[in-house]
Amino acid sequence: MRQSPPPIAYLLPNLFTAASIFTGFYAIALALEASFVSAAWFIFLALIFDGLDGRVARMTNTASHFGVEFDSLADIVAFGVAPALLLYLYVGENYGRMGIVVSALFIIFGAVRLARFNVTTSRIEPSVFIGLPIPTAAIMISIAVILLEQYSTFAALKVFILPLAAILSILMVSNIRYPSFKKMNFKTFHFMRFLVALIVVALGIFIYPIEGMAILAAAYLLYGPFRASFYLLRRFIAYKG
User: Fold this and answer.
1) Max CA-CA distance within the chain?
2) Is 180 among the domain residues?
3) Is the pLDDT of residue 9 over 80?
4) Backbone angles phi, psi at 238, to 5 degrees
5) 3-state DSSP call for residue 241?
6) What would the mean pLDDT of 155-166 be, rounded to a whole number?
7) Which of 32, 112, 135, 225 is at a distance of 20 to 30 A from 80, taking alpha carbons?
8) Reduced to 3 states, what is the DSSP secondary structure of residue 49?
9) Cβ neighbour number for residue 175 with a 10 Å cutoff
10) Residue 35: domain span
11) d(CA 90, CA 34)
12) How far lies 41's CA from each of 23, 140, 144, 146, 152, in Å?
């Protein structure tokens, strides 16, 4: 007979969730002090804590309804409010009401994305996400800020962060499917190719950490629309044929 974990074990995943909230709040504080790059890095740190809480809960068999709701509230702070405020203070305030609207839209649509996820999924992790996950959207904003600060020659591209944020907001509430790596099945005959690809990616990120993460995030972001366009085109050709 499988024993239930001790009550204190339920604290561990929730501590990681609390850490995600704290780092998200600290990112907000840093953005208010105009430490934009540091704020972006703390949003990355919040992503690490967010990834750990669910995995720890599954490993210790301490998943709970409270934990799910707590995690959603943490996500809206760390990946909704924090990147939206970073976006507004970094570039949005230079564009008046437009900057306010785009920044607010990021939070609102992020909250809608989380609410839809909560009501359409159970404790079983989905094999795909419907709509762009809010952590990915937050990381895209953070990467854009870090890249523009690292490469001052591209300072003129700063204005494009607002359209990027608007696109990310729309993708979050879209019906476009994105892969969930939590339920990937790696077959034996794919193992070697996966291992080689993983080593190459890891070495690339080691040499060019920001650029490597930017490429990975952009590839994941574009995968959804390209996949949807491919299936629509295939259905159109089949219909015409």
Assistant:
1) 64
2) yes
3) no
4) -65, -35
5) coil
6) 90
7) 225
8) helix
9) 8
10) 7-184
11) 8
12) 10, 12, 12, 8, 18
